[in-house]
Specification:
heterodimer; A: alpha/beta; 2-enoyl-CoA Hydratase, Chain A, domain 1; 7 strands; globular; B: alpha/beta; 12 helices; 44% helix
């Protein structure tokens, strides 16, 4: 559409969040290059859900697509938030680990293969409890192995967010991309309210939730790298930029002294104001701290 | 939940290192000390309850911000100290585990506990990938994010075969509430469906565990039991040194071949389809 029609840009913006997990994966690969691996027609379903009268899904809520991004080999692993809240079960976890390990194998053989993780997940699937937790430990291990050779880019777009054990997967990624609609944290508000009481975290307080876990805050305080609009084009462009940038000189989860010092400096006698913390951490970043 | 979370961790740390005080600069909840295993020195790490923690939600044996970064720091120190040593001389790192969970607090979320947990997991995995044998000994509870942060990246996991040992993604009360089951339903289900179980013998069926160790009373082990546990740790170290530096053993163990069939099918098919793209 030409600019002379004065249509605001958001009208023509193609939403990423409105796409399902499969379309999201497809949209980040160069046109015509994406091929799904271990897809729904291979019908590897969770063996544990039917035993508990829960309906499995033919892709177990995890879509693996191999192709190219900015001309470079890449694999996109997308969690479908609409199936079991994007939770990690045996099969979805094994798909992630298998794809990451194959990307590592190619990358260490000279064919640098980036991984893009689209994380919409509450963490462990409770019906597969210990196998979900074990799978998450293995996903983390496989990300750590791949990122020695090629970048691992996590995108949290929304609206499920990225919580539980899978927040560690985001934490060990080379780059984290978030929208304003996305949330990232170890424990969600409901879990904290249940475990520690409503005075600790009121899970009905929307403003508080976004102030603590929201994309703007996470990027603002340096715990994620890029804040993007809910736009296919913008997200794809940022992902391409990070694929081309390659792995960072140092990963955020390796910056132990910096973060240790920051934690030591916190006043814990009362709750921490998110905005004040953001300002403090960003100020120090500009003085040559975190990436 | 057991009211003794953390007691076993501290008891075994003391037994294996002769020490139970934190190092200078570390929070009261993180113990690090050298200990003899066989003919070599290993670095032992343990998280214990710290009633005086600055963080109110991390006082009962939870792994919080300070714990995660202190662990990461001590592990990275060990990696750096041994950087120039040949692999067979890199010190083993032994994680003793008795943790209630991760810390469930607003302060923790605000300051990014997910990154702290990631940094600790990163440090453990980096040690493993650098050639340090990393061995976890589950002496009591190993729950959820607490275990992901402290111990789940080990080459080999040992656990006591004892009713006081529980390895799980979520404690019973919370799991019952969220899955809308009663606690007794959950227990019954656990015996039918191994990954749901709270029993460490069922956990052993998943194939991720290297070995179960038997000690009559894990809070007060006899001298010969301590000797056997040390021997089991030494064996696990030797086994880790001969094996790969990834977690592949958790999928290729005899128990995994039974229980994690779906995982193995996924891997084989992914590999087959990968090369055709």
């Amino acid at each position: 559409m030409s600019e002379s029609t004065f249509v605001p840009s958001f009208v023509n913006r193609r939403s990423f969040i409105e796409l399902d997990g499969r379309a999201r994966a497809q949209s980040l690969l160069d046109e015509g290059t994406g091929k799904e691996l271990v897809g729904p027609f291979d019908r590897i379903e969770s063996p544990w859900l039917p035993m508990q009268d829960a309906v499995p899904q033919a892709d177990d809520g995890c879509i693996v697509m191999k192709g190219r991004t900015a001309g470079n080999p890449a694999v996109v692993i997308s969690l479908e938030g609409a199936f079991q809240g994007g939770s990690i079960g045996e099969v979805s976890g094994a798909k992630m680990t298998a794809a990451l390990d194959l990307a590592t194998r190619d990358s260490s053989a000279g064919i640098s293969t980036a991984a893009v993780l689209l994380l919409e997940t509450g963490g462990v699937r409770l019906q597969e409890a210990n196998l979900g937790l074990a799978a998450i430990a293995e996903v983390i291990a496989s990300i750590l192995s791949l990122r020695q050779h090629a970048p691992v880019i996590t995108v949290v777009a929304g609206t499920v967010g990225c919580f539980g054990g899978m927040s560690l997967a985001a934490g060990v990624s080379s780059y984290v991309v978030m929208t304003r609609e996305a949330r990232l944290g170890l424990n969600g508000p409901e879990v904290i309210e249940q475990e520690s009481g409503i005075e600790e975290f009121d899970a009905s307080d929307r403003a508080l939730i976004w102030a603590v876990h929201g994309g703007e805050q996470r990027v603002g305080m340096g715990l994620a790298d890029a804040l993007v609009e809910d736009s296919i084009d913008e997200i794809a462009s940022v992902v391409r930029r990070y694929v081309l940038a390659g792995k960072p000189a140092q990963h955020r989860s390796e910056q132990v002294p910096l973060y240790r010092e920051r934690i030591a400096a916190l006043d814990t006698s009362k709750q921490i104001d998110p905005l004040t913390l953001r300002e403090q951490w960003v100020l120090r970043d500009s003085q040559g701290g975190a990436r | 939940m057991s009211e003794y979370v953390g007691l076993r961790g501290r008891a075994w740390f003391r037994t294996l290192t002769g020490n139970d005080q934190p190092r200078t600069g570390d929070p009261g909840s993180v113990l690090t000390a050298d200990g003899q295993v066989g003919r070599e020195t290993a670095v032992f790490l343990c998280v214990v309850p710290n009633p005086d923690s600055r963080f109110p939600c991390a006082r009962d044996g939870q792994v919080g911000l300070e714990e995660a970064y202190a662990l990461a720091n001590r592990i990275r120190e060990t990696i750096d100290d041994d950087r120039d040593k040949p692999k067979p001389e890199k010190r083993p790192i032994i994680a003793i585990i008795d943790v209630k969970s991760q810390a469930y607090g607003r302060r923790e979320e605000t300051a990014g506990i997910f990154l702290a947990a990631a940094a600790a997991a990163d440090a453990y995995a980096s040690a493993r990938m650098a050639g340090h044998p990393v061995i976890s000994l589950v002496a009591g509870h190993a729950f959820s994010g607490g275990f992901l942060t402290h111990g789940y990246q080990a080459n080999r996991i040992l656990a006591f075969d004892d009713s006081g040992v529980t390895i799980h993604a979520m404690h019973k009360e919370a799991a019952a509430r969220i899955t809308r089951r009663s606690v007794s339903d959950l227990e019954r289900l656990g015996h039918q469906i191994a990954p749901m179980s709270y029993d460490v013998r069922d956990y052993a069926k998943l194939g991720t565990l290297h070995k179960l160790l038997y000690v009559n009373n894990p809070i007060e082990p006899t001298e010969s039991e301590v000797f056997e546990v040390k021997q089991a740790i030494a064996d696990a170290i030797a086994d880790a040194r001969t094996g790969a530096e990834d977690l592949g053993n958790r999928l290729n163990s005899p128990a995994a071949k039974e229980t994690r069939k779906a995982s193995r099918t996924v891997r084989a098919l992914m590999e087959k389809q990968w090369v055709t793209v």
